[in-house]
Sequence to fold (505 residues):
Amino acid sequence: MTRIDRTHSGASRAARWPARTTLAAACAIALGLAGCGGGSGGGDDDGSSTSTTSGSTSESVFARGPVTGFGSVIVNGRRFSTEDAAILFGDESDVEARLRVGQIVEVKARRENGLLVAASVRYDASLKGPITALALDNNRFEVAGQPVKVVGATVFDDDNALDTLALGDVVEISGQRTGAGFTVASYVDVDNESDADAVTVTGDVRNLDTQLRRFTVGSLTIDYGNAELEIDRDGGLANRLLVKVEGRLDANDVLLADKVEDESYDEDFFDDGAEVELFGQISELTGTNGFVLRGVTIRFDANTKFDDGSVANLGVGAVVEVEGVVDDNGVLLAKEISFDEDFGDRDDDSNDVEDDDRREDIEFAGRVSSVAKDAIELFGVTVRVEDRTRLLDERDDRRTFSLADIQPGDRVELAARNDDGTLFASRVEREDDEKRDEIEGFIDRFDGGLKTLVVSGVTIDATAASFDNLTESDFFALAKEGVRIEIEGRFNGSVFVADEIELDD
Fold:
């Protein structure tokens, strides 16, 4: 089971599902708008995370989130010493060297002399099986019928990439399911040596039929008639319960479950006063100032800081990171609530049209011109590097890779988002030199007469460019602010000289 030293089981929680539209107004009345608003809460800039959480009465620390680096293990910018830690892949003991950047892990630790010392680090894939559909132009594919979305922060293991995937490939996904029903991939590994019929899915139980012993996760029908049930809650299996299912697909694409596990945490999973950092999808709203995340009841008040959003953004399906302290009733009192810009549900999938937040999906590949403490510059643009930025070294395969290892002249590939004019990197990979400079971004402004553009802050000289089956005049007729384009060429130290420009449909 995906549990770490659970001391109690079977704790019950009443199902509460008030409407999302009432939460913002109720919070404004109960707490005052200043306490609920969307000011940036920030976070610890020091990767060692030696600061304490206000109100903590315990040395216990629990964190769930993506691995962002190593030396020992860094989870969302917090460094955990793993010298004496148990490293677990599912229920099996393994070695730290098997962990990868991008994998979502659970860490149980203690604070000792200002350091975070891990007792255990557990990784479990959230989705595994054969690729059953590909939509590369939309950064999507399906695994056993479950939709998966690739974003800028997604890490592919080895030399794999989205455009190297093929139908039938067996993949392992570590990701976060969203309210729209797809899984946003944090980590993708191709494992074609695995059994293609063996499938793992994680999601909320829907359409539970206890007579037929079936339910659905997304569009996948699951038959649990012969399954081992590991459900640690009163009432057993129920709709909206977060579960992980392992089994095999039959000829009708029904998943015949071998095991169904409860993936939520009970309140008494944590010590009183424990520092907790959780990452996941809100499953319930509870009253005017609370919600449930992976089974944990969370409360916020006028002292809670909101980052990248406000109380108005809280709703069933929202993906958030929560930092706080557990009270003696097992409730997590939130110090900070952050809306995950990389793995949140930012698309309107009801009509398959992506909204303006897609402007955040920016990619650069080129040589670094300068490096600062928390930023790099390339193509004349500064890109901020945060604690949660995924850092990888594809050139030298250096495991304990950090921003300090990047030097001017190094070639990197990065994904970033635009936050009110500032670029923040979600992923930075140092790579080999034998590649062209590339930009995938959005037109800020253009001049058809001068044949110049500004794309995500980079000045582009298009006088010698070809336009992918378009004439120059047709391209500039279609060009407008906010249009996404892909560019290949070379940066000459002041402007990016384009060889090829393609509109991204």
Observations:
- The chain has three helices and 38 strands.
- Residues 1-56, 346-359 have pLDDT under 50 and may be disordered.
- Residues 361-430 form a domain with the OB fold (Dihydrolipoamide Acetyltransferase, E2P) fold (CATH 2.40.50.320).
- The first strand starts at residue 60 and ends at 70.
